[in-house]
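Annex B. Sample input.
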Amino acid sequence: MRRYILLVVCLCLVSLLHAQNRLELVSPNGELKVSLNLSDKIYYSIDYNGDVLLKDNSLQLTLRNQVLGQNPKLRRQKRTSVDEQLTPIVPLKYAKVNNRYNQLLLTFKDYSVEFRAFDDGVAYRFITSQKGDVEVMNEEFAINFPSDYLLHLQQPGSFHTAYEEPYTHVQSNAWKPEERIAVLPVLIDTQKDYKILISESDLADYPCMFLKGTGTNGAISVFPKAPLAFAENSDRSVKITQEADYIAKTKGTRNYPWRYFVISKNDKQLIENTMTYKLAEKNQLQDVSWIKPGQVSWEWWNDASPYGPDVNFVSGYNLDTYKYYIDFASKFGIPYIIMDEGWAKSTRDPYTPNPKVDLHELIRYGKEKNVGIVLWLTWLTVENNFDLFKTFNEWGVKGLKIDFMDRSDQWMVNFYERVAREAAKHHLFVDFHGSFKPAGLEYKYPNVLSYEGVRGMEQMGGCYPDNSLYLPFMRNAVGPMGFIQKPVNPFNSLGKRHSVSKAGNQCRYRPCRIVGDRSRVGKSRRPYAGIKSCLTVAGIKEPDRYHSCQRAAAFAFIYLIFRCPHRFPGKRIQKTFFRFTAGMHEFFPHKADLPFMRLPSHPCALPAPRFLPRLAVK
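Annex B, continued. Sample output.
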């Protein structure tokens, strides 16, 4: 009898231990499920309505003298449900964001792992509570695909990248460890009903994550090492001459970046997602009244060369030309102009303007015309002259465009935050150019308005529709995107450039949108009048009037123009654009879902074909 009782007790203990090692977390709507298994590592699988999408993924954090997640011994677990509404300072997509998720906090010795299940995705992060600083040797983010998936990747040749490589499309089984790594975000087509977007948020004091193939139908994380010593390479970059054997040296008590998966059954859900915002650290600024996003007129694209009968001066990087740009911006209600490379006497000296420009007179003139001045700088000049923020504020400058970072190791990620914090202190907004993707800093410091790092039209023939079609669903889906738009004045009789510029501006969002062209003030130019109506951007007017499908449909129009040019002869191309876009209506029943980017009325606005999405448009 005693043996029987002892056997029953042992079986109960084994069953209890097994139950503690197998856990589940379900999304609020019950469709997404995370299944966890605590054995030699922390494993998890993700399924959507019983369909397994990612199987036996694992996570670990390797410190100098400890591996967090190895043979984990669960001490306690805590479950929480949250249903709240968030209000972003700069409404990049929506004025209000619903933040609804179920959370599971697993606590082990010296660390925790926090999982969240949203209706549209899953996220997790490490949380540590150790004394002093720690050296992070590696972080394992390993995912496995249950079948052969199609991966949409941006693959640089190394960790040194401007993030402008074209997308590649690789079968998951064929991605080998020795092949090129991929930057985030990564888009996975399960070739069923689902797509998965992978990225990160709340990135601070830590390098960006990259992925590489495993050769066994999976992918695993890889990180740049922390740089220790540098040598000058040019006026805008440095060479790393010594690296540490760790990826980060950081505080022992901290939250690590979120790793997240956006899971969609419909492509438009990728664009609609706000996962980066929902996982980002909260706004750190008390006074945000001075942050005013808006369109920007830009001279660099055309080498400061306005033309026309009213240009009665020698154009170039001089006072008369910049005043002309200010007049142009003022006439069309554009609140800023960027003064790109050439405004300063030297790219290394931010305190001595080009004498032909007379920067202080331009700032005074711009204030008179309600046009603010934004100055371009290399990141190296900023780093070597970090007191320039105070000086620029005293001069009356409104913002900075900082260029050529081209790295995402721990040092450079910290540079972004130091810039954002110091710029906010002196009421300057920041546009990062040559930068990695948004990863939460733009919400922690909402004076960070945009990041470039995308293959835009400055690449000329290298920017083609087959590649640009993926931008709304990948790079722009995780945050604001500084896509360089081609000039909008028509060429030949086709007007292709005008129509493509209109369509493209419907497809991309950023709070400081650049207008680059050979400006003409004297006449009311139809291209600018038209594109201005498409440039109602986030944070300016009616932030709820945004929706993804309008932009997706406009991108489809771009695709049709270039792949089927015989379908759009002569002036039909502009009429077709208006019929294609202005005819989309009655798709969303709720006002909060309406697109905020207005389309101009046009006599050719006919009902859209039945196979197109239909959107409410005013």
